[in-house]
Amino acid sequence: MLNKKILKSILNVKHTAIDGMEILPDGSFAVMAHPTKGEQCRCGKCGRKAPYYDQGRGRRSWRTCDWNNHKVYIVADAPRVCCPEHGVVTAAVPWARHGSRFTREFEALATWLAMTCSKTAVAALLRISWNTVGPIISRMRSELDPNPAARLKNLSRIGVDETSYKKGHKYITVVIDHDTGKVVWAHEGHGKSVFTKFFRLLTKEQLANIKLVSGDGAKWIQECIDQSCPQAKRCIDPFHVVQWANEALDEVRRAAWRDAQKQAKDSPKRKRGRPRKDAPRKDTTAKDLKGSRFALGKAPEHLTDKQQAQLTFIAKSDKRLYRAYLLKEKLRLVFQCADVSTAKAELDGWIKWAQHCRIKVFVELQRKIRRHLEATNRKIQLSVYMAYGFRNIDNLIDMIMLRCSDIDVRLPWNYEAA
Q1: How far out from the chain centre does Cα 310 lie?
Q2: Which pairing describes strands 233-236 and 87-90: parallel, antiparallel, or unpaired?
Q3: Pairing between β-strand 170-177 and β-strand 182-188 as defined by DSSP bridges
Q4: Which has the closest alpha carbon to 20: 35, 7, 9?
Q5: What is the maximal distance between C-alpha atoms in the chain?
Q6: What is the DSSP string of 81-108?
Q7: How many C-beta atoms lie closer than 10 Å to residue 196's C-beta?
Q8: Cα 291-350-310 angle, rounded to 5 deg
Q9: The sheet that has 16-23: what strands, in order across it?
Q10: 119-159 per-position pLDDT tens digit
Q11: 313 - beta bridge partners?
């Protein structure tokens, strides 16, 4: 039998007395323990001392980090206490959070893995269900983020966007601070009613401090800005602008493919037999254009040799489509300008070119950009939101905040080092 001090050190628990250990029939280890005297009879929710009520449901086990390939549990009595504030609740234990069947160390490890690995890897490594990880993440977020309102201070330039997380038009609205690049708020749903909830969390001074709000072309964003912080300027982030340009380019490509396909059908069919050497070759323009979507959508520095050859072919065979590609690329480069005055001049030049390009979808695009972009002050950065496939929307929002905000999530042994 291992020494009790060694067991306590391996389990990495405090205010805990080890009573003994046994090996269960399935090969897992059960470590019997109980809280030290000063930590007994405390409310599981607030941690205050409370009078003993009853023995509850008897002994309970908490899963902790594995020892090699063996599961390990801490087993202890779980009495109930009568808290003046929360009523009759299960007494707190120093090694686990209230309502959890896992130790603090196990939950810290599970949260870090969920932010780093795929859900399949987390479930297989820890030998738990992926649905179990969601509540673990929510408990970790509640402890590591006790004051979410603190990150709403000193907001000056913010961005808003909705992210689909489930089929059936299920969205999450996310607000990001452009100065820090961190998510400051997330909520289920989208539209004016949801974005208004964010502004209601801010004080009058905080609302007056907002200078810039970025987002897509949704009308409800402007309505919320006019209602809550009319002094703020509205603009669109580069992601949505370039996305619109790619959609316009793809529409031009499809039109070019249809024209090439029609021209190939109308051309005279080749007669039977071996063609002469000077006979015209079969027109494959439609086929080449159909497979050029990725070549047209990629940035030039990321093109493969084959895709570069496709662009060269398009430049020779379809001047209109190649002009649309150049319009898309020039618009993308506008948002890579480090200087605001340079970006403004480049964007004004692009708008003038798009006005006279004789490509209907790009003429409409420049009108759309002119309606939504402020031409005087635009310093926008792309916001990337990561989410994972939780069924529970609260777990998903907690995951977004842990992943994208300023919450410090570490491995369990790094918390001790700090």
Answers
A1: 34
A2: unpaired
A3: antiparallel
A4: 7
A5: 103
A6: EEETTTEEEEBP-TTB-TT-SBBHHHHH
A7: 14
A8: 20
A9: 16-23, 29-35, 70-77, 59-67
A10: 788 888 999 988 888 889 889 998 888 888 888 888 988 88
A11: none
